[in-house]
Amino acid sequence: MQIPFYKNHGLRCAQTCMKCALGKVFPDKTFDIKTLENITGRKGNFITWPVQIAAGFQKLGVDFFYPVKPNFRCLNFDELKNSPGYEKPFSRTDFKSVKDSIDLIKDSRHFSEVDNDITLEQITDFIDLKKLIPIMLVNYDVLVGRSDESSGHYLVVTRIGQRYVYAHDTGPCNASADKRFLRENIQMSRNLNLIDHGLIFIPSI
Predict the structure, then answer these.
(1) Would residue 3 count as lying in a domain?
(2) Which three-class secondary structure string do you get for 42-102?
């Protein structure tokens, strides 16, 4: 799938991936990063959760599919904040923005509660058969073989082969279009999915 590529010039991989995907859907429109930051509720050095990306697409009036885990509508934020192993990302989370995003989309038709993990085979079908563009959350430390520090990073998946997953990695480090990753490394790096499946899809046509 041919998707425009833009480089992330800061800690804005979520918004830059949105810009890549939107550039495919709306080739005649320009989406600046500041606007995408505003509609996703990104502030300062806080990270962006997938639900904030989904809320941003909703504010733009863009169709999307956002698979979430059961009980998404009735999350207990006090319990959520005490989830073990998420201390680093939680320390950089604006929980008000996350909650506002959930409240915005929880009654929409754009999300679906999915019990089981979404496999790479299913994502392949979404790309090839349904012509959807996936924005995927990965643990970058796991992806590149560093110690598991739970550093979230977003990729725009462009195609999936038998051995490799190809994706736009917007950086800021080692940014590249259609970068090649081993399937098993991508699968292992999908371990930051607490309330959803770390995926947002938008139609490419």
Answers:
(1) no
(2) CCCCCCCCHHHHHHHHHHHCCCCEEEECCCHHHCCHHHHHCCCCCHHHHHCCCHHHHHHHH
State yes or no: pLDDT of 147 exceeds 80: no
The 10s digit of each residue's pLDDT in 175-195 is 999 999 999 999 999 988 889
Euclidean distance between CA atoms 135 and 73, whole angstroms: 22
Residue 5 counted as domain residue: no
Query: Residue 87, CB half-sphere, CA atoms under 13 Å: how many?
Result: 4
> What stretch of H or E contains 185?
helix 183-189
Q: Strand order of the sheet with strand 199-203? A: 176-182, 164-169, 152-160, 132-139, 199-203
Q: What is the number of structural domains in the chain?
A: 1
Assigned domain for 4 exists: no
163 Cα distance to chain centroid: 22
7 lies in some domain: no
Position 148 confidence tier, pLDDT thresholds 50, 70, 90? low
Give me the CATH number covering residue 36.
Answer: 3.90.70.10
β pairing state of 132-139 and 111-113: unpaired
Q: Which residue range forms the structural domain that includes residue 23?
A: 13-203
CB 55: neighbour CB atoms within 10 A? 25
